[in-house]
């Protein structure tokens, strides 16, 4: 493959792909067509399953520019995922496009009259001659504004499902059995397959319909668009293109696209995207005047930076505020699948494939069974030819060996355990939209938790306030609801600096803002729609104190008339997570000058205040509160210049307002732990499952909460890693410092090795990821607290942890956790809002107690999968051994013997052995992740050898019995006193298939008991599942089958013997068979229980991939780590620490 012919699409992005160009070749197509005819269509199926083979067999390589077909391969995992045919347009530019916003590409289009593109995952990729590659040119090619989730017809889904390799194999098996007149089991398999296909179709169709309904809310609505000369035109939302100016109706709407507000204000419910049902206020984009020459005057629009001005597709605009004669307008910036909602829908429609070792190993195991079947296939053909068996019998019996070795019921059997686990999860309030992930959850050895709303309560309680006057702190006070504080700037800031609004008469907004405002006891009033329309500008929101707080003495002057003490909020600068603050411009009634109020992260606010107004002990006081786990908010105020008029304030840059402020003090909020949190984390630690906190909150607050909930034990050390990006020619560097002094342990306690944990914030994480990627891998092995993390950084952290071989669980409340929930091996959303549609699991219980339950059920389902797979493999091999031994004497098992084994024993046992519930507690031992592991291979191979040995002994021993003779229809060896002269009977009475003989009967009895023995031996209970004796359907089935088999063996009934085509054998031989069965059972139990469980499991589980990290979330503190509070190391860490880090990573 020539390197220059290989193109990379979406380089550096999540959907990075390699692209190869191909051109259709007629003679290859003809050859493939001939091959399809010769193989009866099987070649077509093979090419359908293998897209790479399909392209390479029908096309020749060419450049991407000249390609007619492209082959795409994901750079993650390297699987060929799609073949896309190129669609060509030969129209002129004018015919294709009415509007061109980007003149850069006009020349390109005229030079290349053919516009060539292909569609992949609902995204169109166009050929760009300038870069000689395919690109998503959204600036030029918009298409219809529609998130089209097409619900496939039942017929299409059926065809796709039926063409699954397993179902094709089942079809082959059914045809073969029908040819061999083995109708009963064929009907049973068809019945099971139909139920399986119907269930699968129902589930898939239901998910498509749910997703279609979710996006249909905005699919086609009528919108008002501003045209030239201020004309308003009503069009369908599907006709919107970026650049259109739309009018947001005053009564609200569901947004049909992503648009940025250019005039007016909107209150929006974004729960569909963020999971937070709290309405947010969206303001118009800043519009600096001609005199303003700040960065913002020239900065280009960016979705992330200008999030507070952007109305996202699918979000609900509740209400708008506007000027008289002015409409609330927004400019369309993204349409269709390019929108925020479109990206969410794409991630659901086309999820990343989950690569799990169990499924890879299952295919390898099946290939081994196919190889065994191949040996039996050749053996049966050679044996039949040597014995001059008819050709039809040779074909049927040799192919029958394949269906015996590779059981067609395997998919249904493997699915049963997952279905049962899904039902049990549903009973405890955990809903699953991706059942295959249940097995993966059984391997989870690290869980990331969001803090607010997950580990702690959703709401914040006001613990107290600490005001500042003349550059020093007052003593902390419980609240600000006092008469002497009514006129203070501190209370005015609390009452005005928020984004609260009234919706249907109820105060609504951010919970923190709500608590802060309620603590003042003030009243908020908003202008009605009618009042607003009477004025030439937006009527301000007004706040005022209640009458009971007003001083009783009469006012000295009208300006100080307390009965009319009101503050109007003139301009609001919304909270920005990037800036970590919000501010407002307000005016006191009767005052000419305006005031600016600001609140935000204490470090940020203090940095914007005059130094003399910030107390000297600010850092110590703040640290004292954050170490106790309090959420601290700082307040500031500034009296604005009289020259700042209302109109100037509306267009001023916030940087001019948020400077030279006066520090007012601190608000201390308490975020209580949920009562279940410490107990659940303790259970996880006992089970050697590492816990990590990923939050957007303050670092010290997060560390404090981590200590309070037991994530970081009191005696452990926390080391904060601060990374500084390169600047002024200096290289990037990392500084290390202790977060606090760990609590000393009591002398009475045995001295344990001191352990350490890393903590870092989002900025440091980004710098380390970019400049120290090797260090990041080592840090995440001991990182316990990740604070101030942005949503995309949470996802990157999950990927980093997966990169060091962790199976990662993520538990969040759906707020900004969508990406991480999707990327984790097991994502659990505690939110039942629409955002949870992206999470594999959703818990109805709003606390983390669902996490151990999910892991327990995952472990139970995983062990059940192993048990079922091992049992089905043994069932195949036991039957294969029986048939192979009988083939040597030109015999076989009878149809009803097969039927009894396949339905009465196998199906009954398989579907009941999967019913074992999960063990009641999490244990420290983890189940293996794949079938190709020492203990499992040892288990299967030893049981195969045991079964082979005892069947061979039975087969050979029966022929050595003194009463043994070639069985004839009238042979009666049960009565040894009168031997029958078999030479008098006609040969024509002998069974054509030679089913009834002593070898067949002996092997049938022994093999039937072997199925039950391995079922009981493999049906493991503790420590991952409840003991089998608690699974009463399995116990009843197994005991019933044992009783029935012993009954027909020791007390033959003629009708049953005729039905099963078994012959009568002497009583002493039955006792010998019973002895063989008992010894077989004893050996099987001894090998599986004692040798495997006691010896091998301990050897394997003494070595974990993460070494000590699977056992403890921390690591020994490096002895040379005795430096002062902060040491700086450019580009690297000290040698001693580097060695420790290297050691921790490589263990």
TrEMBL record:
Source taxon at top rank: Eukaryota
Residue ranges of every copy of the P5B-type ATPase N-terminal domain listed in the record: 13-128
Protein's membrane topology: Multi-pass membrane protein
Catalytic activity entry: putrescine(out) + ATP + H2O = putrescine(in) + ADP + phosphate + H(+)
Protein keywords: ATP-binding, Endosome, Magnesium, Membrane, Metal-binding, Nucleotide-binding, Phosphoprotein, Translocase, Transmembrane, Transmembrane helix
Location(s) in or outside the cell: Early endosome membrane; Late endosome membrane; Recycling endosome membrane
Gene3D superfamilies according to UniProt: Calcium-transporting ATPase, cytoplasmic domain N, Calcium-transporting ATPase, cytoplasmic transduction domain A, HAD superfamily/HAD-like
Record-listed E.C. numbers: 7.6.2.16
Any single GO BP term: intracellular calcium ion homeostasis
TM ranges: 27-49, 183-204, 362-381, 401-421, 862-890, 896-915, 936-958, 1002-1019, 1031-1053, 1073-1096
InterPro entries: ATPase_P-typ_cyto_dom_N, ATPase_P-typ_P_site, ATPase_P-typ_TM_dom_sf, ATPase_P-typ_transduc_dom_A_sf, ATPase_P-type_domA, HAD-like_sf, HAD_sf, P-type_TPase_V
GO molecular function, one term: ATP binding
Listed name of the protein: Polyamine-transporting ATPase 13A3
Native source organism of the sequence: Amphiprion ocellaris (Clown anemonefish)
Underlying gene: ATP13A3
């Amino acid at each position: 493959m020539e390197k220059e012919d290989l193109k990379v699409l979406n380089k550096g992005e999540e959907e990075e792909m390699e692209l190869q160009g191909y051109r259709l070749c007629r003679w290859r197509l003809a050859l493939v067509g001939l091959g399809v005819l010769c193989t009866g269509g099987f070649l077509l199926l093979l090419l359908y399953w293998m897209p790479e083979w399909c392209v390479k067999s029908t096309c020749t390589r060419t450049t991407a520019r000249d390609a007619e077909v492209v082959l795409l391969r994901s750079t993650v995992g390297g699987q060929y995922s799609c073949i896309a045919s190129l669609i060509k347009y030969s129209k002129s530019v004018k015919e294709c496009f009415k509007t061109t916003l980007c003149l850069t590409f006009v020349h390109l289009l005229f030079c290349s009259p053919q516009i060539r593109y292909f569609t992949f995952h609902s995204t169109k990729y166009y050929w760009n001659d300038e870069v000689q590659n395919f690109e998503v040119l959204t600036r030029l090619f918009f298409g219809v504004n529609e998130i089209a989730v097409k619900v496939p017809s039942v017929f299409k889904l059926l065809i796709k499902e039926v063409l699954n390799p397993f179902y094709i194999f089942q079809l082959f098996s059914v045809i073969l059995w029908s040819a061999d007149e083995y109708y009963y089991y064929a009907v049973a398999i068809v019945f099971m397959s139909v139920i399986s296909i119907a269930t699968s179709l129902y589930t898939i169709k239901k998910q498509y319909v749910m997703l279609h309904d979710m996006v249909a809310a905005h699919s086609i609505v009528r919108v008002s668009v501003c045209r030239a000369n201020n004309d308003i035109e009503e069009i369908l939302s599907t006709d919107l293109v970026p650049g259109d100016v739309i009018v947001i109706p005053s009564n609200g709407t569901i947004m049909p696209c992503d648009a940025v507000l250019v005039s007016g204000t909107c209150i929006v419910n974004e729960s569909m995207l963020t999971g937070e049902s709290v309405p947010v206020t969206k303001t118009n984009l800043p519009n600096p005047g001609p005199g303003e020459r700040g960065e913002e005057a020239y900065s280009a629009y960016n979705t992330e930076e200008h999030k507070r001005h952007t109305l996202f597709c699918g979000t609900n605009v509740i209400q708008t505020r506007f000027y008289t004669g002015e409409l609330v307008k927004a400019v369309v910036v993204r349409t269709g699948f390019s929108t925020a909602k479109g990206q969410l829908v794409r991630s659901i429609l086309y999820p990343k494939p989950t690569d799990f070792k169990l499924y890879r190993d299952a295919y390898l195991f099946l290939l081994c069974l196919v190889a065994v079947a191949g040996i039996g296939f050749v053996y049966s053909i050679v044996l039949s030819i040597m014995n001059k068996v008819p050709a039809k019998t040779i074909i049927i019996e040799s192919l029958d060996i394949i269906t015996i070795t590779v059981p067609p019921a395997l998919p249904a059997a493997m699915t049963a355990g997952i279905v049962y686990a899904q039902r049990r999860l549903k009973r405890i309030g955990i809903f699953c939209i991706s059942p295959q992930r249940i097995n993966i959850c059984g391997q989870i050895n690290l869980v990331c938790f969001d803090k607010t709303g997950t580990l702690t309560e959703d709401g914040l309680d006001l613990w107290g306030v600490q005001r500042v006057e003349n550059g020093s702190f007052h003593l902390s006070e419980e609240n600000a609801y006092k008469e002497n504080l009514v006129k203070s700037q501190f209370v005015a800031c609390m009452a005005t600096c928020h984004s609260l609004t009234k919706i249907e008469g109820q105060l609504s907004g951010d919970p923190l803002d709500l608590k802060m405002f309620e603590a003042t006891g003030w009243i908020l009033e908003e202008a009605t729609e009618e009042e607003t329309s009477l004025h030439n500008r937006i009527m301000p929101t007004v706040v005022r104190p209640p009458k009971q707080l007003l001083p009783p003495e009469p006012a000295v002057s009208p300006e100080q008339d307390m009965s009319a003490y009101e503050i109007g909020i003139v301009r609001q600068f919304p909270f920005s997570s990037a800036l970590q603050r919000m501010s407002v411009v307000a005016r006191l009634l009767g005052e000419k000058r305006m005031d600016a109020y600001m609140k935000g992260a204490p470090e940020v606010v203090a940095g914007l205040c005059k130094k003399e107004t910030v107390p000297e002990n600010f850092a110590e006081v703040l640290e004292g509160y954050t170490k106790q786990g309090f959420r601290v908010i700082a307040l500031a105020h500034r009296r604005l210049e009289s020259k700042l008029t209302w109109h100037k304030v509306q267009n001023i840059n916030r940087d001019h307002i948020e400077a030279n402020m006066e520090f007012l003090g601190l608000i201390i909020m308490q975020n209580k732990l949920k009562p279940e949190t410490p107990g659940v984390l303790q259970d996880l630690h006992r089970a050697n499952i590492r816990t990590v906190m990923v939050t957007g909150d303050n670092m010290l607050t997060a560390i404090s909460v981590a200590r309070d909930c037991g994530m970081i034990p009191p005696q452990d050390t926390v080391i904060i890693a601060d990374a500084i990006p390169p600047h002024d020619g200096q290289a990037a560097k990392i500084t290390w410092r202790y977060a606090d002094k760990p609590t000393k342990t009591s002398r009475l306690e045995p001295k344990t090795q001191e352990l350490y944990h890393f903590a870092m914030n989002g900025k440091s994480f980004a710098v380390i990821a970019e400049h120290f990627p090797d260090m990041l891998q080592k840090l995440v092995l001991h990182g316990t607290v990740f604070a101030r993390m942005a949503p995309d950084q949470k996802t990157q952290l999950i990927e980093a942890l997966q990169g060091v071989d962790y199976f990662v669980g993520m538990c969040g409340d759906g707020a900004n956790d969508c990406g991480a929930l999707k990327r984790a091996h097991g994502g659990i959303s505690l939110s039942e809002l629409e955002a949870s549609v992206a999470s594999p699991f959703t818990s109805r219980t709003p606390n983390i107690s669902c996490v151990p339950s999910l892991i327990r059920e995952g472990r139970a389902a995983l062990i059940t999968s192993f048990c079922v797979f091992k049992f089905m493999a043994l069932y195949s091999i036991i039957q294969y051994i029986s048939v192979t031994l009988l083939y040597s004497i030109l015999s076989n098992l009878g149809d009803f013997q097969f039927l009894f084994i396949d339905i009465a024993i196998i199906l009954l046992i398989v579907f009941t052995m999967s019913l074992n519930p999960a063990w009641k507690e999490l244990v420290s031992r983890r189940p293996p992740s794949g079938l190709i592991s020492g203990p499992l291979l040892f288990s299967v191979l030893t049981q195969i050898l045991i079964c082979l040995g005892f069947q061979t002994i039975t087969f050979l021993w029966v022929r050595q019995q003194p009463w043994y003779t070639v069985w004839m229809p009238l042979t009666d060896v049960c009565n040894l006193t009168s031997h029958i002269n078999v030479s008098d009977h006609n040969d024509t009475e002998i069974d054509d298939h030679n089913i009834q003989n002593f070898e067949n009967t002996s092997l049938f009895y022994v093999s039937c008991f072997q199925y039950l023995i391995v079922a009981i031996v493999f049906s493991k209970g503790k420590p991952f599942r409840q003991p089998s004796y608690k699974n009463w359907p399995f116990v009843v089935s197994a005991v019933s089958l044992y009783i029935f088999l012993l009954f027909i063996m020791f007390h033959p009934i003629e009708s049953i013997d005729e039905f099963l085509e078994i012959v009568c054998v002497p009583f002493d031989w039955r006792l010998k068979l019973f002895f063989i069965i008992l010894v077989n059972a004893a050996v099987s139990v001894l090998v599986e229980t004692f040798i495997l469980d006691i010896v091998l499991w301990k050897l394997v589980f003494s070595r974990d991939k993460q070494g000590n990290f699977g056992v403890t979330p921390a690591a020994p503190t490096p002895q040379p780590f005795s430096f002062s509070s902060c040491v700086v190391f450019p580009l690297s860490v000290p040698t001693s620490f580097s060695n420790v880090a290297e050691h921790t990573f490589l263990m």
